[in-house]
Design a protein that fits this description.
By secondary structure, the chain is α+β, with helices and mostly antiparallel strands. It has five helices and nine strands, in the order H-E-E-E-E-H-H-H-H-E-E-E-E-E. Strands 1, 2, 3, 4, 5, 6, 7, 8 and 9 form a nine-stranded antiparallel β-sheet that branches. The chain is globular. The N terminus is likely disordered.
Length: 291
């Protein structure tokens, strides 16, 4: 078959103008960078996310007062605790008798007014406050996921800071697909694409309200029935503690997270958290995004 110059140019133009969509609850491609979420469309690796304009590295002053950190106008507060106490029967320094844990009652909370604007803010919040506790570290998982949705490069830096290496690879391999282009086989309404997934673990966010979370945003947590375990991570000894984050996006509200603290360190890392990026229920309506 012979192709003319005009045919090639027309075909190329058609490909460049093609826009894929990800359903009514997806954040759309938005040339103006609007954070309204009113446009539906895919968050492709090359297209601009609807909330990309919220990502910046403008340094702000921060203030730490007790369990509250203020970065510019953004406020983060951590409260409560994760009960990891138990009976150390074999006297190895780690509790080995299962805890009697209330299955639905949260005991630890992190509230925040906004998703961190960029890596500088994320790093400050992590190092100065949230990374110093189990619940604070776990609450940064949806923050890192949301930043990755807005901007791949910035989000990847945040995920690498927050997580151990193996968990970085696991998380990114899934998120790049769930926030990427819809499958050509499923069409524009590919339900695998879930740009709203980071909101699903925030208090008040449900599929029936298009994952609109309560404000200030709140992550609720409680201890897992699994006891902490000692392990060597790449020749680094430390302790892995298990906890649950409560989220309304799945049939089971408890989303398991494994948090690692290396011996001699004060900052925790996320060891494993697949429950946070497991397919949640598709939302009903249009997701308005997160601030």
């Amino acid at each position: 078959m012979k192709f003319t110059k005009g045919f090639l140019l027309t075909g190329l133009a058609a490909m460049l103008l093609t826009v894929t969509t990800a359903g009514s609850c997806g954040g759309g491609d938005d040339d103006e960078g609007s954070n309204s979420g009113s446009n539906s469309g895919s968050n492709t690796n090359t297209a601009k996310d609807s909330w990309a304009n919220l990502v910046n590295e403008n340094a702000q002053t921060f203030k730490l007062e007790g369990n509250t950190l203020t970065y510019g106008s953004h406020v983060y507060t951590v409260s409560g605790s994760i009960n990891t106490e138990g009976t150390d029967k074999n006297e190895d320094g780690v509790a080995d008798e299962k805890l009697d844990v209330p299955q639905l009652t949260p005991t630890a909370f992190v509230t925040f007014t906004n998703i961190p604007s960029g890596y500088k803010e994320f790093e400050t919040v992590y190092k100065e406050l949230l990374g110093k506790s189990l619940q604070g570290t776990a609450a940064m998982i949806p923050m890192a996921m949301e930043i990755y949705g807005r901007d791949r490069e910035t989000g990847l830096k945040c995920i690498k800071l927050l997580c151990v290496e193996n968990n970085v690879n696991s998380m990114v391999s899934i998120l790049k697909d769930k926030f990427g282009e819809p499958s050509p086989y499923a069409g524009p309404n590919d339900t695998y694409m879930q740009r709203y997934l980071p909101a699903a673990t925030l208090k008040g966010a449900l599929p029936t309200n298009a994952y609109k979370a309560n404000e200030p945003y709140t992550v609720e947590m409680l201890a897992s029935v699994n006891l902490p375990q000692r392990l060597n991570l790449s020749a680094t000894p430390g302790l892995v503690t298990y906890l649950y984050v409560l989220g309304g996006g799945w049939d089971t509200t408890q989303r398991s997270a494994e948090i690692f603290l290396a011996d001699g360190q004060e900052l925790y890392k996320v060891f494993n958290c697949p429950a946070f990026y497991t397919q949640c229920k598709n939302c009903i309506g249009t997701w308005a995004g997160l601030k």
